[in-house]
């Protein structure tokens, strides 16, 4: 049997604010807010999120809040082993502001491969909590303000330099947040430009 004893977990925390302005010549003043207030904004936000491969709504909590389950694409570790992250998250959307908030409620993993390997993988994967708030500013800029926390279990049998791990993690998380959030907002802007071309946003074809 594989026995993995654990030290106290290491906690990494990072926060990042990423913004994207509407490209020149796209839409009209106020058009981005109109686009972001549409009834399908939640579905669009999930579709443009690079970290979510598939998602399904679990239930509505009230008229503005719903629970969802999202899955990452399987990450392979050799020919027979793969890991998929499964996150239950709460989405709150207020079209009057407009503001959209993602909050991770629970994270689990599904793995394939030999049972002993799956047990080991499950023992070293981090607990994840996060919150991402997306708003539109008065100057038609999309803003994503995100907080992320990882709680990493440390196997007691691994001679890991705890202090270096604690210090080295947050900068890595911030870089990853900037990359992922930037890609999500870029995807939003591509979809907004498409909506403007197709006339889906009222008045959006008017030049700035």
Protein model, in words:
It is a single chain. The protein is α+β, with helices and mostly antiparallel strands and 208 residues long. Helix content is 29%, strand content 40%. The protein is built from four helices and eight strands. Strands 1, 2, 3, 4, 5, 6, 7 and 8 form an eight-stranded antiparallel β-sheet that branches. Strand 5 and strand 6 form a beta hairpin. The longest helix has 36 residues, at 162-197. It is elongated.
Key terms:
elongated, disordered N terminus, disordered C terminus, 29% helix, 208 residues, alpha+beta, 4 helices, eight-stranded antiparallel β-sheet
Question: How would you briefly describe this protein structure?
Answer:
29% of the residues lie in helices and 40% in strands. The chain is of the alpha+beta class and 208 residues long.
Which descriptor suits the 3D outline?
elongated
DSSP strand content: 35-45%
What kind of sheet is the major sheet? 8 strands, antiparallel
Overall mean pLDDT: 87
Looking at how many chains there are and whether they match, the oligomeric state comes to single chain
Low-confidence stretches: 1-5, 203-208
The DSSP helix count reads 4
Distance between the termini: 66 Å
CA radius of gyration = 20 Å
Specify the structural class.
alpha+beta
Helix content: 25-40%
Order of helices and strands: EHHEEEEEHEEH
Number of strands: 8
């Amino acid at each position: 049997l594989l026995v993995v004893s654990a030290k106290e977990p290491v906690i990494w925390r990072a926060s990042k604010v990423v913004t994207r302005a509407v490209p020149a010549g796209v839409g009209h003043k106020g058009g981005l807010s109109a686009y972001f207030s549409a009834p399908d904004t939640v579905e669009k936000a999930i579709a443009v999120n690079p970290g979510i491969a598939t998602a399904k709504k679990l239930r509505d909590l009230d008229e503005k809040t719903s629970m969802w389950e999202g899955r990452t694409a399987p990450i392979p570790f050799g020919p027979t082993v793969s890991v998929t992250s499964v996150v239950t998250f709460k989405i709150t959307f207020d079209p009057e502001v407009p503001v959209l908030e993602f909050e991770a409620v629970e994270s689990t993993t599904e793995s394939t491969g030999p049972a002993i390997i799956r047990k080991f993988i499950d023992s070293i994967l981090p607990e994840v909590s996060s919150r991402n708030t997306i708003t539109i500013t008065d100057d038609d800029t999309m803003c994503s303000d995100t907080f992320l926390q990882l709680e990493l279990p440390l196997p007691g049998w691994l001679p890991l330099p705890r202090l270096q791990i604690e210090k080295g993690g947050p900068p890595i998380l911030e870089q990853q947040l900037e990359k992922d959030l930037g890609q999500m907002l870029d995807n939003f802007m591509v979809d907004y430009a498409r909506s403007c071309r197709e006339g889906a946003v009222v008045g959006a074809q008017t030049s700035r």
